[in-house]
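Help! Submission page says 'invalid entity' but I think these are all valid:
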Amino acid sequence: MSILIGDDTRLVVQGITGRDGSFHARRMREYGTNVVAGVTPGKGGQLFDDEVPVFNTMAQAVEETGANASVIYVPAAFASGAIYEAADAGVDLVVCITEGLPVGDMTRVMPYLEERGTRLIGPNCPGLIVPGSCKVGILPGSIVEEGPVGIVSRSGTLTYEVIHQLTGAGIGQSTCVGIGGDPIIGTDFVDALEMFEADDRTEAVVLIGEIGGTDEQVAARYAEEQMETPVVGFVAGQTAPPGRTMGHAGAIISGSEGTAEEKMRVFEEHGVSVAERPADIVPAIQTVL
Amino acid sequence: MSILIGDDTRLVVQGITGRDGSFHARRMREYGTNVVAGVTPGKGGQLFDDEVPVFNTMAQAVEETGANASVIYVPAAFASGAIYEAADAGVDLVVCITEGLPVGDMTRVMPYLEERGTRLIGPNCPGLIVPGSCKVGILPGSIVEEGPVGIVSRSGTLTYEVIHQLTGAGIGQSTCVGIGGDPIIGTDFVDALEMFEADDRTEAVVLIGEIGGTDEQVAARYAEEQMETPVVGFVAGQTAPPGRTMGHAGAIISGSEGTAEEKMRVFEEHGVSVAERPADIVPAIQTVL
Amino acid sequence: MNIHEYQAKQIFRDHDLPAPPGRVTRDADEASEIAADYGGRVVVKAQVHTGGRGKAGGVKLADDPEEAREAADAILGMDIKGLTVRKVLVTPAVDIESEAYAGIVMDRSRDRPVFMVSPEGGMDIETVAEEKPEAIFRQPIDPAYGLLPHQATTLAYRLYDEPKLAKEAAGILGKLWKAYRGSDATMVEINPLVRTPDDELRAIDAKMNLDDNALFRHPDLEEMRDVEAEDDSERKAREAGLSYIKLDGDVGCCVNGAGLAMATMDLVKYYGGDPANFLDIGGSSSPDKVVSALEIITDDPSVSSILFNIFGGITRCDDVANGIVEATSRLDLDVPITIRLTGTNEEEALEILRDNGFEAMSDMDEAVQRAVEAAG
Amino acid sequence: MNIHEYQAKQIFRDHDLPAPPGRVTRDADEASEIAADYGGRVVVKAQVHTGGRGKAGGVKLADDPEEAREAADAILGMDIKGLTVRKVLVTPAVDIESEAYAGIVMDRSRDRPVFMVSPEGGMDIETVAEEKPEAIFRQPIDPAYGLLPHQATTLAYRLYDEPKLAKEAAGILGKLWKAYRGSDATMVEINPLVRTPDDELRAIDAKMNLDDNALFRHPDLEEMRDVEAEDDSERKAREAGLSYIKLDGDVGCCVNGAGLAMATMDLVKYYGGDPANFLDIGGSSSPDKVVSALEIITDDPSVSSILFNIFGGITRCDDVANGIVEATSRLDLDVPITIRLTGTNEEEALEILRDNGFEAMSDMDEAVQRAVEAAG
């Protein structure tokens, strides 16, 4: 088992003829993901890599191929349009890799998706991977290993680092989800924790947070009240100065709530094991498994 | 018991200082309705009839009086604004008496209310009355009588006619609801039937439909599949020509689906007793009670 | 409110939609002059509030000004489905490669507008829906968001495979949405949306229905109302704030409330009569309204019996009674009146009527039967 | 992106908001001339990207042009919270009857903007929130609907009881929403919104934050960027497409990915060092980006040790290795470099580095410890 994606995933790549889209479509196919279609307006009728049909619109792609998920690699100015289009076409899951979406666009996208029951991962995220089964996004397939640990994270490379260390210690992953570093994202920690809790393969979860917002605090309360699966938490940005945006648009401390110290304190208060360094995650997971 | 309103209703009258608002606020108070506040922007601080405080905004009215329902008597151009305001102020029930709301306004109002869980009755409706307890709107209190029959109708005076005949025959009513004659309305037949089915005082329901749309057909199917309470149906407009709007904006036959004949046929098909004339309603109800 | 093709096309052009130019006239000679001005082939089109003009001979091609004169002459005054043609539109003819359909209607069951397109244009969309339903593509529009750009693109690719044409069509659909929303329309249609041999797209016909309830915010559109095309009595009713529709029978009905008015008509039929009209005098009716109503009913020569059916709620029965007394004293009535009154201020009303020599009843069925009998 | 008060007021005026006129200058003599032009009392206000100007002496009243010159002279060059004042705004003084607050911020926990007003204006809204929370009124805005008219009215009545003032305030709040939405702002504030003795409302101060991600659709607003106010190295980083923030330590960090960059800084601290910066070279980093990154780090004289921490995913380790080799050959580096590389094309990278005399490690903690030690 896994969460969100797996062997049943039938994926459309939105922006498949672009530089990033084509590169990662190939990596996903190599990993075994069932990429059933690509979409680029004006390029309908082509075949990508001689095998994957390209359509002008998501509606056509879904009608013709029965796709149930999409991943978006289009420039930021068009990314919210691609999300709306995927929702209207009726896929269940939309993963938006693109970064730099205006936050105003996202405020309008979110209620549209909610009304239609479409789940969004991201934007500005590395996507997700189920080791040995399916990868949607840009997480490197080489570092993962099948196993019992679910990973949910606001970061990209920091997540790779943590996965790398776990795999190095012989601890595999059930599903790794990068939820993205923007202030407004589709799927948050609590959503992912809920799915991991329901997933019978996941025996422990690593939650990788960072400064800004209060999602980590909400997640800690959720973990305590609603979960039996143990959670290990890490928060990046202990040395970040307040009021500055640390790369991710969402990583900015305003007021006392968004600091790493506060988040770690709340983790501890609610029974989430706190890893001070990334390297502390492996032993913490070994303890709870 | 009753549906939607009753002794717990704490009502705000939006537009209480206007001609219709003040007239009907008095009638409602005379009937025993607990009118706790009125709203007219710019007239805040006044007392209506020396007793009911008037506020500038719904938010203030609800904060100060704990109101849980509102009724709207403001001109059509401002009525959708009044509905939004009532929803934001957090009342559970909004009854819009005003007629002539642009249908485009209503298309935008509806999802806003749905997201907030606010129930709307109307627009362009006579409101509702629980005999002996509470009246919200313009239904005449003099013609009703307490009893076991629920009434739901798209009409105004035709409903009075039916109530009048029932009362005359010694058959009282549990709650009478006028849902309005517009093409887009907040509460439809099915919503009302569902509530009547759940109401232990209601032993039979009279459904008064008319030409246009397919709400009667949907209601017939619902009555057959989901209800134990018997339903008697009447459809006005058997002699109405197609393509013409018969007074109510929603009463227009387009295609074969919206005719009275079709609606009566579907009633019969789904076990709803059909009254050919208003005068047939009383014996039909006597049969099912 | 219905508007004519030439008016809808004006709204289209105001929204930058590619509607060909055209001028409207009531005069065959002027039609010829317009054709001469445009030069080349023109189309002369009847401007009436009904479909099926083409089949009825209301649309004619003309190769030169003389033919345009003849066409206009033939069309003007023509009767199409009971409506007299008073104006024609003269517009340059457009070469047709293919015809598509684009329209927006209100979907009552979903409380929102739905955009429809079909590559099968030129015929009635209802006919396409029956004969080739798979050729119609629908996109419900979220009213808070309007037509989203990808929806325009998706619909456009349903019409044209070629990216260049699809892009142009998407632009047209976006503008059509703006015309619909900006005019508070309840229906808008381009049928056919023509692709020319040199790959231009043109809105050759235009249909629009405007929301009467929203005209208060569009005084410019209210001016488009074709009062000539209205039945005289219906115009008079509208101006008096009454809801009136003329029918073929002989029992004139005057009722308060649309539902009760329909039920009354039905009951007239039930008892073997034929209603002469639908008439709702509305909620808070003054004596003046009753006077206007009676005038309109008695203007109809087919009426041989008049029936009042009033259930007093907001409407006060005494107001109606006073109106009846006033109107009958002013008008020289020679048809029998049957009056049914009940509800608010019923007693006062009965007294007023009795004092003026009228009888009134309180049972609806009895009153209707009496009125039907009186019609003979 | 932060913009200055005078720029926000320009946006306000473009949206018909009542911001008093004003002119900006870098010169005390010109400030005096502006004051003379306006006549009467003026206010001279420091234009810096921080709050608390008033307390720091950055806002001064001047009764005549000479006082305005003195005020400007005192303020220009002043240091406020580490920022040098380079410009002042000279604006006519407004008489104050009372001060209110109006602002819009993004509420992350609800994924939507929230409108806030308070009759307690003139001070920091955070202070009001602490000391008198009941004096702040919030209205979440449905992003698909925008600020609805009744919401503007409701908020306005929170500020003023008088219908005339409330009506005017509602208009102002509506325009403030348009300014916020139309500029893709993430924050906007009028503080104070002043009521004058003759009942006029005026936006005396204006604050706005614009969404960097949305500047692509506002080239006019992008021009408002005050490059002078940026740290030199931060500007250089922005132009090179890098995310860089200068800190106080001595270990220069060059990392790919914001989360890993923060975690690296934290680890430097953990091992007893002090990070000199946050630097994210981004996803698909070319050798050029690495060169720019190294230049920026080495421009900082406090840096006494450089740490590369690269986890290759989309970023290819060999690209980074080539960048390091190129940059070090161009720049005359005299600080030790510690390199940690792992992931995509790690082997190629290690070979490139070895061939050029560099050593590279694969464990993050070891690398950080080494870099901290190297800083001494």
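Support: the input was valid. A stray whitespace character was the problem, and the output above is from the cleaned input. Chain A is about 35% helix and 20% strand.
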